[in-house]
Amino acid sequence: MKGKLFLKLLGLFLLLLAFQAAAMQFVIIPFIVDKVLELPPGKTTHLLGNETLWSGLIAAAVALSLAVWVAGRISARLEREIAFARRIAGGDLSARLPHPEDDVLSTSETELNRAAERLDERFVEIEDRRQELAAMLDSMQEAVVAITPEGLVRWSNAAMESIAGTQVRVGRQLVQAVRDPELLACVRTALEQREARSGRARSIAPGRTFEINAVPMPSGGALAVLHDITRIEAAENTRRDFIANVSHELRTPLTSIQGYAETLIEELEPGQDTSREFLGIVLKNAIRMNRITEDLLALASLESPDHKLALRPMRAKALLQEAIDSLGGVAADAGVDLEFAGAPEVSVLADSDAISQVFGNLIENALKYAKAGKRIRAGAQLLDSEVEFTVRDFGPGIASEHLDHIFERFYRVDKARSRESGGTGLGLAIVKHIVLAHGGRIWAESELGSGAAFRFTLPLAPVASRN
């Protein structure tokens, strides 16, 4: 390119010399010859000097004009290229240089345009990949946050923003956005010691637990990934509590059976009354163990993914009346009146055996606390798309702090009374699972001194199958 530019300038210089030679040959020299012939001797030298001066001035003026014109064009082209470079540096990769002429500068402008096009293509490709990566990270259930070496938030995905809210913003200090000490400690280790660290955070979001994995980034900074393990931790706690409760529930009757059986064996000739009393206690505790085992098996069956209900349209009134008839004798033996409070003549989708177990567990539970009120009322009412069933007792009631927990396994409001009455602590948990499997809801309402009401709903049967 430098060679071409040199040849262009050399050609311009030769053109100027040719112009001056032509002007001298065809204009100035004939003019001087004519003048010389007319002048007297002695004036010729003066005339030649003046004409030579003027010819030089005219040639210089023409050369200067051409030089200014050429320099102006080159300067304008260079300024255009500088403006183009500034636009590219400013991020405007759509900038292009026009190249209407076929010269040296046009060649450079063409190359600059090609470079800009390649840069534009690369940036578009990088942006597409960045958006794909951002979409993938946003679709993750795990929360992800990137931190600069200075501790500033570089980037975070949608899961992190939903957990921490608007506190996590790009350019803000992580310590100002998240106050959990374990997360900050993990990130600090990754930033300062350049080592991976794990931990558990419990104060980022109320009631939720996150497993933290913070690792250093090759280019500096750190990356923290938060995995929500709230359900896993709750399941683990439930498992531990379940094992502890089952062990406790089974150990009590086993201890009684073992103790009384050993006493009967050790006594060579136990009295008939003593034998009958001890064997009765052994039988009672064996029955209790059998009930615990049956309830555990029933609960396991309900929680199994293979468990299927035999749903079919059934009259709500018939379901309730059948439960009252089957348990009326038990209530009468306990000195409690079991009252029918009415039910609508509509059909619900239900598994007859499962719903009978629901009514049985609720009424038996009410019998344990209804002796003070001496009556239990069972009824139902029609709602928009479901039927609400109610079993109410008029006993001492349940304190409000127990209402949210009474459907949990082995949860007892009065542990002493429940064990004395032979309860397993699983009846209401079984009821809850059966109702939920039907697509219904269940809850309890109570005030101390005013009894308790257990309510659950069942969906209405489709119109075509109600008759």
Overview of the molecule:
It is a single chain. This protein is α+β, with helices and mostly antiparallel strands and 467 residues long. It has four domains: 2-108; 140-228, PAS domain (Beta-Lactamase), CATH 3.30.450.20; 233-303, Helix Hairpins, CATH 1.10.287; 312-465, Heat Shock Protein 90 (2-Layer Sandwich), CATH 3.30.565. 57% of the residues lie in helices and 15% in strands. The protein contains twelve helices and twelve strands. It has helices spanning 2-38, 44-89, 104-139, 158-164, 174-177, 181-192, 230-266, 272-303, 316-333, 352-369, 415-420, 427-437; strands at residues 143-147, 153-156, 197-201, 210-216, 222-228, 312-315, 337-340, 347-350, 375-382, 386-393, 442-446, 452-459. The strands form three sheets. A five-stranded antiparallel β-sheet has the order 2-1-5-4-3. A five-stranded mixed β-sheet has the order 7-9-10-12-11. Strands 6-8 form a two-stranded antiparallel ribbon. The longest helix has 46 residues, at 44-89.
